Amino acid sequence: MNTHSTDTHIGHVHLYVADLTRSLSFYREVIGLQLLRQQDRVAELTTDGKRPILIIEQQAQPLPKQPRTTGLYHFAILVPSRQDLAHTLTHLLHTGYPLQGAADHQFSEAIYLSDPDGNGIELYADRPRSEWVWSDGELPFVSDPLDGDGLLAAADDTPWTGLPSGAIIGHVHLHVADLQAAKTFYCDGLGLDITIPFRNRALFVSAGGYHHHIGLNTWNGEGAPAPAPESIGLKWFSLVFPDDAERQQVLQRLAEIGAPVKTDNEIPFTCDPSGNHIQLITSR
């Protein structure tokens, strides 16, 4: 068992897109994010008007999102309540934008779709932690059908004005090439704990007893290659530590397992064995 604080969490996701104008329209009008700032080919999107949870960047010469590679499976926006998720689903149905699925994971209820470039998105609400069914420190791998009618019944008549200010990036789910190598990196290096172990060619890890901050799977194939640098998809996501002391412990662990660390503008970055990049930042 690792010792990360419950304050360790995902900060933001940085995506490459093909057309910034198209993506801005989607993320503002369909998903309900607000534009925080925009400069050249980069836009930052927020829910609270203060911090970005999503950064989208238009590639200069983009390649379409490549199949059968490592990289982003989906990023997941956590809304504060079931009623918020009900409002979100009601809004999505009104837009007519195609949904790709919905599920009840026992610890959460989730809706799935993709952005115009094929980047996967989950919108979800957690059930109370008292309802999570732990057994020997593990959660079950559950993906039951969502009770859509029951969820919609939780909505009231409040007009849709976008995602609530408390919505955050709850987790990121990644395609990797090798689950054992991923386990070494995310558990021994980043210090995260396994919460759902090796089910259905997937592994889920977290800090502070959350159901998962990072999902890992080999559904694009064992040994899948990393996408080309110009490909649409994930540039990086940030992992936020409560203070620099905890981050320094992680940097030492990464060094001990031989994981790469580089610094950009005094911010450390690392990269998992499958080519997924992670920015390591602190909340203060």
From TrEMBL:
Q: Which UniProt keywords apply?
A: Metal-binding
Domain called VOC: residue spans: 9-126, 168-283
Q: Please give the coiled-coil regions recorded for this protein.
A: none
Q: What SUPFAM superfamilies does the record tag this protein with?
A: Glyoxalase/Bleomycin resistance protein/Dihydroxybiphenyl dioxygenase
PROSITE patterns in the record: GLYOXALASE_I_1, VOC
**Pfam families with a match to the protein in the record:** Glyoxalase
Q: Which domain of life is it from?
A: Bacteria
Q: Does the keyword Metal-binding apply?
A: yes
Q: Which PANTHER family match?
A: CATECHOL-2,3-DIOXYGENASE
Q: What is this protein called?
A: VOC family protein
